[in-house]
Amino acid sequence: MDAKENAKPLTEIRTRLGWPQVAMAQAMGLSLRAYQALEAGETPIRQIHLLAAERVSMHHACIQGRPEITTGTIRSECLDLAAMIRGTQKKPATANRAGESEDTNAGEAALSV
């Protein structure tokens, strides 16, 4: 896969938002030239770039009330988070310091007593 092909997810997120490159660059905290180099494949896209773009799209989807402008992955993760907040989905178990599995809901219940 060539560098320009690697830039597709970044470009897709920006176009879903309906933004020019300058707006996406500003939202991600990059200069216009640095952002253009990412989309052109001149600079390798790192995971942090994709995470920043996804975060920007999630933020603006919430502001605009338009979940369709985010990627499917972000929508799914947001739905999972909302379900946990509503209490309709059990939180995943976490490992304690001894490496044993611990139910995070039980720990939360103990704190609220």
UniProtKB/TrEMBL annotation:
SUPFAM superfamilies noted in UniProt: lambda repressor-like DNA-binding domains
Domain (HTH cro/C1-type): residue spans on this chain: 12-55
Ranges that cross the membrane: none
Positions of region (Disordered): 89-113
Protein name: Helix-turn-helix transcriptional regulator
Organism expressing this protein natively: Methylobacterium adhaesivum
